[in-house]
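Sync notes, pocket subgroup
Present: LS, DG
LS reminded everyone that the earlier model was apo-only. Rerun requested with NAI included. Inputs:
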Amino acid sequence: MASYDVIIIGGGPGGYVCAIRCAQLGLKTACVEGRETLGGTCLNVGCIPSKALLHASEMVHETAHNFETMGIATGGVTVDWEKMLGHKSAVIESNVKGIEFLFKKNKVDWLKGWGKITAKGEVTVGDETHSAKNIVIATGSEVSPLKGVEVDEERVVSSTGALALKEIPKSMVVIGAGVIGLELGSVYKRLGTDVTVVEFLDAITPGMDAEVQRQFRKLLEKQGIKFVMGAAVQGVEKGDSLKVSYKLRKDDSEASIDTDVVLLATGRRPYTEGLGLDGVGVEMTERGQVKGSHGKTNVDGIWVIGDVTTGPMLAHKAEDEGIAVAESIAGQKGHVNYDVIPGVIYTAPEVASVGLTEEQLKEQGRKYKAGKFQFMANGRAKANLVTDGFVKLLADAETDRLLGAHIIGPAAGELIHEICVAMEFGASAEDVARTCHAHPTFSEAVREAALACGDGAIHS
Ligand code: FAD
Ligand code: NAI
């Protein structure tokens, strides 16, 4: 029986970052991971592989659509799917090995196997029991099932199967117009698949700024993705092809679509199977999340971070919670600012947001001003043939303090961080507007939107 200051269960972005930080703070640390490799959902079957395929497929699209305009002749683009998947696997391998290296460097013990909390301060992995002053639950999430849709990861796939299809399908029905559905739907659309997204609600990407939602849908439709909105999927029937049946919410009428592949992307749920939480009395929410407050559960010495607890299911949120909990365990004041957690959708164009939406501000009855700037008027965007989209900044009507940013357009996922930093420092829109921005950059669109919160943008 080995004894540790901290045992973290789960080696995803929450768990592995927490483990490294604990070790850096001088705590004797182990991380339990049941997968063959470290890195969790994100590195193995999530963020990283999906971005590898998004980038590769975007290159295909760029070559086929913009090269000729820019005077580059290619003689036609072909896709070697097996090689593209190989590229994806190589990217995963290099990332997960990187975490193994960091564990060795920081002297974090990797306890290989599935962990169970068998008592307060006690974690069992296989036949071995270890003691720990602190246990951190970082077990992440899994795909939420949908009644009538049986995932086989071959023809009816979750995101995991969609990242490893044997061939590029002729047609695909995506159930759910959330982040996974639109990112992976985009990958296959660009590779030539006929993609139809069936969404329960009337808008895509629930919770996003409504103006961004509308523009985003228009742009995806322009790329050829079809949408069936306000439709509740009833089931998928497996024959030679797949039949996806749905009911329209507005009139209860029923219809179906035949397709080669179905991607189920209707959300993820916390993963706590076999963890023994009942036995030690850890409190859960009605949605199966482990309850936490600043990372503390109701049981002394048991902490929680990442997808398995409340809040957005995002890798960087899990990482930040991992660092905060490590610092709290070490006696410091670990803290996460939940008001400034960016969200990015890595489609083309990218979509990024932070802070409050206009809808939330209206709901709160808060007076605000909105400054908007279209990429159409940005010199760099014109040069790069990526003029779709806009930057919208929201600021308090009286104090001018930045309250939110919503960007759809080139490099939105990078641009958003200027506003994150500004918001962390309590900056005003004028602070951003008065900061010199290099020309010609996409970032100038952010400055122009900040100017538009005041007297007006220069270039619109
Ligand atoms: P996880 O990454 O799920 O890791 C938990 C780990 O714990 C797993 O490896 C699991 O095997 C292990 N585990 C569970 N139970 C036990 C046990 N009892 N014993 C031992 N080990 C156990 N987020 C972003 O921010 N950006 C993105 O671009 C992005 N893209 C995504 C794309 C896809 C297709 C998917 C599915 C998700 C994506 N996400 C993205 C979400 C992101 O992957 C998660 O938010 C993130 O992985 C959560 O980290 P975590 O550490 O909480 O959990
Ligand atoms: P999601 O919650 O983003 O979207 C699910 C969508 O499915 C919603 O629009 C919902 O209305 C719809 N839906 C639910 N039931 C339905 C039904 N019966 N029929 C039709 N539509 C239905 O979930 P998603 O896309 O599965 O992603 C899971 C998590 O992974 C998200 O929380 C997200 O944060 C994370 N993720 C993050 C990424 C990023 O940051 N770029 C990329 C991919 C995933």
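DG: The longest strand covers residues 128-137.
LS: The radius of gyration is 23 Å.
Action: DG to write up.
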